[in-house]
Amino acid sequence: MVSYKTYDLWQATILKIKGFTLLAVHINGNSRALFEFEDRPEREQLLLDFVNRKLSVEPLGFVDAMKSLKALTYVDKLDTKVKEIVSQNKQG
User: Fold this and answer.
1) C-alpha dihedral over 59, 61, 63, 66, to 10 degrees?
2) What is the mean pLDDT of the chain?
3) Using CB atoms within 10 A as the burial measure, which of 15, 16, 50, 70 is most buried?
């Protein structure tokens, strides 16, 4: 399976609202979220249309999709912090 990865929350939101399957959210060392989606042939044109302001989306759906993606980044950060604390407790 081919995937498409982006650090761009706006691109990720467009892909999510247009039905692309979110495969994973990777948080790197500097707390940046890398969104990984299942790729489809229409992705490139879809993102070009977005950048060129030719894409129409339902506004509330866009906001909801963005909020849910942002929430996933916080959950992953929280999971990482919990794992660090558990690891420290095991060592102590």
Assistant:
1) -140
2) 85
3) 15
Total residue count of the chain as it appears in this document: 92
Number of domains in the chain: 1
Domain that holds residue 18: 3-91
Q: Provide the H-helix boundaries in 52-91.
A: 59-91
pTM here is 0.78
| 11 touches 62 (CB < 8 A) | no
Give the tokens for residue 30: 């500097």
Three-state DSSP state, 76: helix
* The token pair that represents 54 in the structure block: 């030719």
Q: How many separate helices (H) and strands (E) can be counted in the chain?
A: 3, 3
**SS3 call for 85:** helix
Rounded Cα distance between 88 and 83, Å, is 9
Contact 69, 12 (CB under 8 A): yes
